Each structure stands twice: as structure tokens, then as C-alpha cells.
Amino acid sequence: MRGRPRYHFCTLFDRHYATRGIALLRSLEQHCREEFRFTILCMDQETQALLAKLDLRKTDLILPKDLGDAELLAAERSRPRREFCWTCPPSLMLYMLNRLAPGEIATYVDADLAFFSDPGPVYAELGDKDIAIHGHRFSPEYQASEATSGTFNVGLIAIRNAPQGRACLERWRLQCLEKCALDPDNGYCGDQKYLDEWPSLYDRLVVLQHPGVCLAPWNIRNYAIGEKDGQVTVNGAPLIFYHYHSLVPLRMNFLGRCALVPSHGYQFSSTQQRLIYRPYASLLRLAQRQTDRCAPGSLKRPQASWRSLWQSYRSGQFVTG
After folding, report:
1. What are the φ/ψ torsions at residue 258 (nearest 5 degrees)?
2. N or C, which end of the chain is more exposed by having fewer CB within 10 Å?
3. Distance CA 264, CA 76 (A)
């Protein structure tokens, strides 16, 4: 009989991000060496119904009302969907901690991540501390973004069920309930810029230093990307997870494949496309096939236009899987 899971992950997404959420789960199944549970906050009932049909292993499916947070539900009635999604992570993590034993760890992950190796090094760095976050580590051409996006990224946050971890989440929850908007002129970037003050508030916090943590379009140029024994490497260390920010997946019905087109002007080398983006395109294609079999037509996905495909091809930023 299997023991209690060692890792407890959670994420959130709606039906428009469902294939990405499934790809995230599949990447964990492929690379996580320990038992884990994966709690998915479904941001609409369609997503919950779809995922229930898929009979996903190791998952728990919940809706915002299941979090037991009346103030959060009041915010849902008054905020746009995007802002409400940003408001949810602290409440979701508190929901997780309320179901974990003292000392256990809840790990929030954005739905547009994918793992390339075991997440063990994240927890090794956390050690006996209570909070783990990671920086954006912007490459020089994007360094100016730190002023509006913040020093730290919400892509992965690990928090222990301990007094300081809970205090951190309670404070973050109140801040997000007060305001969780994209308002750079006044210093707000959804739920994210609140993290800037965490290192000064919590002495049991660790800023993760592993180069394979949160590789992303905004920092990939800082690192040498390679491959060793079938493992993608970052400056010679294993890539743990990649944040596929600002990526437009286009479904190519005439080929039955998935094309990835980066936005925000991000550019990637052929090596980066081959080692990082092509595997993700394949994960999304498999997720699309799975959802199509279980619930045909339930997800409206963007279709690739000839113009967008041709422009992406000419720029060298067109990846299929």
C-alpha cells in the first residue's frame, strides 16, 4: 500500500487553460520521483466536469466555493475573471495547509509550467525553513520589467504548515482581497509585487538559487542551455521547470498538431526551441487529444491562421509538436 504523498501541489485554471494544466500534471507524473497529490482549483464548472471525465490520477478537483472563503467569493462577484484568478492563490494555499499535517508543505504552481526533472532540489533548498520563492532573474534586455513585475515570480511558491508560513499566507490573502489588479502606475502587478516585501518580513524564507528553477522567456538568455544523458541542462545543472509565459498555442487541424507562437517579442535559439519548446508542444498536443476523446468540442482553442503561421515561420519562432 502506498504511503502518504510527500509532495502536495496545487494550481488553478479555467477551460481556456485546461490543456496547459493537464500538460503540467503529465510533466510531474513523468519526472517527480516521490508520491504526490495535485489539487486543481477549477475556475469554472465546465473545467471541473471535463477533468472529472478524464479520470486523472493523483488529483483532487475543487471549485472556488469549496475553499470556504466567503470574502473570496464576494470578490468573484465584483472582479474580472483574470483579477479573480490572481486573487485565489493565497486562499488556495491556506485551504491546502488546513488539510495537511503540521510541518507538511503546500506548493503552488502556475498552470503554464512544465517540469523537466524531479522537483526534489526545490525542497532541499527549502530545508527546515517555511517559505520558498524564486526571483525573475531578468536578463539585461528585460531588466526594466522588474519595476512593474516585481523582483519575485509567483510561478512556484512552497509554504510549510507552520506559524510563519501561515502568517505569510494570511497577510498575502488580505492584500489580494484588497486589490489584485494590473496597475503598474500605482505599483500593482496582480498578486505578484506583494512578494517583494517577504524577505524583509520572514526570517524563515528561502530565495531559491538553483539555475534550473523557473527558467523563463525573460531570463533564458542568462544561461547556457544544453543536454546531457537525455536531460536538459541549465549551466550544466538539470532544468527543473520552465515557465511558458506569454505563449500562444495554435491548433493546426489540418495536421492534427500543435504550434507554439511566442508573443511579447521573445526570441529563442534553435537549441532552446528543440530542447524546451518542442517537448511542450507535444505535451499540449497529447492533452488536446485526450480532451477531444472525452469531451469533443468542450474547449474552444485558437486555430492557426495561415498568416500567423507564415509570420512565425519567417521569424524562426514557430515550433510544432
Report:
1. -120, 130
2. N
3. 29
Angle in degrees, CA 88, 93, 95, rounded to 5: 95
* pLDDT of 174 over the 90 cut: yes
- Identify the residue whose cell numbers are 526533472: 117
Per cent of the chain over pLDDT 90 is 76
Question: For residue 186, what is the DSSP state?
Answer: G
Query: By CB neighbour count within 10 A (0-12 exposed, 13-18 middle, 19+ buried), where does 70 fall?
Result: exposed
Express as a percent the part of the chain with pLDDT over 70.
86
Q: Give the other-Cβ count within 10 Å of 144's Cβ.
A: 10
CA 107 vs CA 60, 145, 155, 270, 289: distances in Å = 14, 26, 10, 32, 28
Question: Looking at domain 7-207, what is its CATH homologous superfamily?
Answer: Spore Coat Polysaccharide Biosynthesis Protein SpsA; Chain A (3.90.550.10)
- For residue 230, pLDDT beyond 80: yes
Q: What pLDDT, in 10s, does the model give residues 195-209? A: 999 999 999 999 999
pLDDT for res 55? 84
Greater confidence (185 vs 199) lies with 199
Helix (H) or strand (E) holding 236: none
132-151 tens-digit pLDDT: 999 999 999 999 999 999 99
DSSP code of residue 159 = E
Q: Longest C-alpha distance within the chain, in Å?
A: 55
Name the residue ranges covered by the structural domains of the chain: 7-207, 246-320
Phi/psi for 39 (5° steps) reads -95, 125
